[in-house]
Each structure stands twice: as structure tokens, then as C-alpha cells.
Design goal:
Length: about 110
């Protein structure tokens, strides 16, 4: 699977829903982890500007040490955002990952 970096220079993002843990096993509630052992979460983001009226929201997966408290409507920056194509069990699609999600008003360190 090859990640393709996304150029964020002309985009802004608004949180379109609450973050949720990425579940591995619904029966046990086990949360998927990344290679460093951090739990993975998903968050729906609305990119601006966006002319795609059929599917305006993207869902981004990101790691976090604790359950992320990112309220709906917050302006955020998906740091290190990358797109990737996936295929599993006859289905395929486009996914998005980020290194972290931070408030847009924070400056990069």
C-alpha cells in the first residue's frame, strides 16, 4: 500500500463529527493500534473549498495516546495527511491517514 501525500496549502478542514475508535473486533471492542502501539481513531473532516456535493466529507484515521477530544465544528489541520487506495474482499476505495489532528489555530512547532 503506497501513501500519497496530500497538499494542504489551499485547504482548510472543519470537523464534521465526533472522533471514534477504529475497532478491530466488534465482539470484544478491541481498538486497532499502529506499529508504535498507539490506538487508532477516525474523524470525519469537511475540506474547504469542496465542490463534491455527493461526498463532501473525508474520514481520516490517526493515532492518539488518549481518546481525542475534538469537538464538531472545530477548524483543524490533519498533519501529514496522506491518501491511499485499499482493496479487501472484492471491495476497494480511497482512505486517508494523518500523523495527528491539531487545532488550526496552533502554530507548527
Amino acid at each position: 500500500m503506497r501513501n500519497i501525500p496530500v497538499d494542504l496549502s489551499a485547504l482548510a478542514f472543519i470537523v464534521a463529527g465526533e472522533p471514534e475508535p477504529k475497532i478491530v473486533d466488534r465482539a470484544t471492542g478491541e481498538v486497532k493500534k499502529d506499529a508504535e502501539g498507539r490506538e487508532l481513531y477516525t474523524i470525519p473532516l469537511l475540506p474547504k473549498p469542496n465542490d463534491d456535493r455527493r461526498n463532501p466529507v473525508i474520514v481520516v484515521t490517526f493515532p492518539s495516546e488518549t481518546f481525542p477530544q475534538i469537538p464538531e465544528g472545530t477548524s483543524v489541520v490533519p498533519v501529514g495527511l496522506a491518501a491511499f487506495f485499499w482493496s479487501m474482499n472484492g471491495r476497494s476505495g480511497l482512505g486517508f491517514r494523518a500523523e495527528t489532528i491539531r487545532p488550526a489555530n496552533l502554530r507548527a512547532a
